[in-house]
Specification:
The complex is a heterodimer. Helix content of chain A is 41%, strand content 21%. By secondary structure, chain A is an alpha/beta fold. Classes of the chains: A alpha/beta, B alpha/beta.
């Protein structure tokens, strides 16, 4: 039973594309919400927080410092996405040893120790190749809704290779393929395969130990999920709400701050 | 804004408008990164002064030396034996190559996928922004990597260049090659300066350079204390300044700074709060004003206690044996000392791995950050082996590849902060 005295702890993941909020009380998720980041991430954070009364906020993601620097009450702590994902993932699947997060601008591969600590991590560099942004651009180029892009690619009849990972070059490569009469679904699959090639290389650099959790907005894409499982030859766990893992982890970190074990 | 140095800069054929812009950016950058630090040593005032006069007073000194008939020889690499330059009564200046400012000019003649350091020195020359390069009677290049090797061919069209061939292995025949290269360099220096390098002069020069190495070794011993009494940024700056300041004055000033440090260490005073994670940097040299990564690391709540790089321990670890009496013996001592350099241009390069692991253990660091410039094959490739050697020793490593631009600062912060969360 939740008592009136238990403080509410908010975890916020301020990403390049969306902002997620998870609220914990006594270690249980009592509320969650999300909004697009827009050009005013701070305003969006304030809107999300206006609907709840949190005693403590832990911010993570690309915009974590924004909240840290602009919000005085309640107290804000910032942690990196790496730590937030590690905490969130272990809460959802306590055995997880490897995490893949593909977000709007970043791809992260994280290896965990058997007791859940971050052992090693890799991130993409400043270029958005292989991230959600890449899929977004390519979906536009092929005139498919981003949400349906994965299903669209799964209708492909054959595998074609797209070697360029640069958003700009891949687009011209796709245009070239279209001009040669290649079907859009085949091209879409080729683009998905290109992401998998890059992602798998990143995962292998940290070492892929099962079980593997796939999170972040791109984990909604069924084609990436199945190609990933195929490429790694292992099962891929995707949480029900893959975008919330970072915010959940941040909230769990906050829970430890208000009620140390 | 007019300065007392305008006439001098004009004589050196600098692009005055662009140069003024460079000094403003440098001043602002220095203010943000250095002058905001808390608990700085009194002795750092000298470094602040030297840096504020980096293109002023020191350049004036170089012009005065030249007016007296002395020559100025510029270098880019710790392989170039400064002893031979000083023995010919020339002034030796390490050219910095740590700014992005001449990049556009450099990319007109260099491929885009060239490392930032090469683009920087070529860019400085083409944009007429570096009074050191313009003061040089000779610029010494070297074959440490393919990029530098080929860039000097182009650079030679703009300035007098002497290129030394650096061996890539450490066999007997490589020593032979290096000995021959020292001889060839000696001849070139003698030609340029019109001075004969005698045994007596070389002996003095060897002592002088060793003295500077000793004071920097002392600095490193003192900063190794727990808690560390000085920021990593400040030690990096001291190492950077050691390449272009007058060696006698520099050695004396850093000696005074070390006295101050000694008192701090005895009193157990640290420059950061107790429990601040200690980290070490390893990899490519960080030339003035490339303070980007140390600033990010120390702003994230860590303190750097060692730099395994050419602007760091690689330049000062080994002394030249002072026992030689004849020119022959002293040249042999120089061969010995310089062949101990563990640059990533060597293959295999086991010594570097051993040195990094030993250094990390001695300094009691929580982890190592490996810094490679984008497109620097030797260091970027060796990062893999460094990471494995450290892992075997139970030490985590974060590999960073970046350049001088500030566009990836946010991504770097995330990596560095995540690494700190991991090692804390």
């Amino acid at each position: 039973m939740v008592t009136a005295a238990s403080p509410l702890v908010a975890g916020m993941d301020i990403g390049s594309r969306s902002i997620e909020l998870v609220l914990l009380q006594d270690g249980q998720v009592v509320h969650w919400d999300l909004l697009p980041t827009t050009f005013d991430p701070l305003g969006q954070c304030r809107s999300l927080l206006a609907r709840v009364r949190a005693a403590r906020i832990v911010a993570t993601g690309y915009g974590r410092k924004l909240l840290l620097e602009n919000l005085d009450n309640p107290e804000v702590t910032a942690i990196t996405e790496i730590q937030a994902y590690a905490l969130g993932a272990r809460r959802l699947f306590p055995e997880v040893r490897t995490i893949l997060d593909i977000g709007g601008q970043d791809t992260k591969a994280i290896a965990l120790t058997s007791d859940g600590k971050v052992a090693k991590f890799e991130m993409n560099d400043r270029c958005a190749a292989g991230t959600g942004k890449f899929l977004e651009f390519m979906a536009v180029a092929l005139q498919v809704d981003l949400e349906k892009f994965g299903d669209f690619a799964l209708q492909a009849e054959r595998r074609i290779q797209i070697s360029s990972m640069c958003t700009v070059f891949a687009e011209s490569e796709a245009t070239g393929l279209m001009a040669r009469g290649e079907s859009p679904a085949n091209i879409a699959l080729g683009l998905h395969l290109a992401i998998i090639a890059r992602t798998a290389a990143m995962l292998h650099r940290v070492g892929v130990k099962p079980p593997l959790l796939f999170a972040g907005g791109v984990a909604h894409n069924p084609c990436i999920k199945s190609l990933l499982a195929e490429s790694l030859g292992a099962a891929v766990l995707v949480p029900e709400q893959p975008d919330l893992v970072g915010a959940l982890g941040a909230a769990l970190y906050g829970q430890k701050l208000v009620a140390p074990e | 804004m007019p300065t007392p140095y305008d006439e001098m800069w004009e004589k050196l054929n600098l692009d005055l408008t662009a140069h003024e812009g460079l000094l403003q950016v440098l001043g602002k950058f220095y203010g943000d990164i250095y002058l905001t630090q808390e608990g700085r040593l009194k002795g750092m005032e000298y470094l602040d002064f030297v840096l504020s006069e980096v293109h002023g007073l020191r350049i004036k000194e170089l012009q005065e030396a030249r007016a007296q008939g002395r020559k100025v020889i510029g270098t880019f690499c710790v392989f170039v034996p400064e002893e031979l330059v000083l023995a010919a009564d020339a002034v030796c200046v390490g050219l910095c190559a740590g700014a992005e400012i001449g990049k556009e000019a450099a990319e007109k003649i260099l491929p885009r996928n060239t490392c930032a350091l090469i683009k920087s020195f070529v860019g400085f020359k083409l944009s007429r922004l570096c009074p050191y390069i313009e003061s040089c009677d000779l610029v010494v290049g070297e074959t440490t990597c393919d990029g530098k090797k080929k860039a000097y061919e182009i650079f030679a069209e703009y300035a007098p260049v002497h290129v030394m061939e650096i061996p890539q292995m450490k066999q007997a025949c490589d020593r032979e090659l290096w000995r021959a290269e020292l001889r060839r360099f000696q001849t070139r220096v003698e030609e340029v300066t019109g001075q004969e390098i005698t045994a007596a002069r070389l002996k003095e020069a060897i002592k002088l350079v060793n003295q500077r190495r000793r004071v920097l070794q002392r600095l490193n011993r003192l900063r190794a204390a727990v808690p560390t009494p000085i920021s990593g940024r400040d030690v990096l700056l001291i190492n950077q300044v050691s390449f272009y300041d007058d060696p006698v004055r520099f050695t004396a000033k850093i000696g005074e700074l070390c006295d101050e440090l000694e008192k701090r260490v005895k009193a157990g005073e640290g420059v950061t709060p107790p429990g601040t994670p200690r980290l070490m940097l390893s990899g490519c040299p960080m030339a003035v004003p490339n303070w980007k990564l140390p600033y990010i690391v120390e702003s994230a709540g860590a303190v750097i206690v060692g730099e395994e790089s050419c602007i760091g321990t690689r330049n000062i670890r080994d002394l030249v044996d002072e026992g030689g009496e004849t020119l022959e013996e002293m040249l042999e001592a120089l061969v010995d000392r310089y062949m101990r350099i563990d640059c990533a241009c060597f293959t295999p390069n086991q010594e570097r791995l051993q040195n990094i692991v030993a250094m990390a253990k001695e300094l009691e660091v929580k982890g190592v950050i490996h810094f490679a410039l984008n497109f620097c094959q030797p260091y970027a490739m060796e990062a893999f082996k460094v990471g494995r050697a450290l892992e075997d020793a139970g030490l985590p490593m974060l590999g960073i590849e970046t350049d001088y631009s500030l566009e990836d600062v946010e991504q770097l912060k995330t990596r560095v902060e995540a690494f700190l969360e991991m090692v804390r």
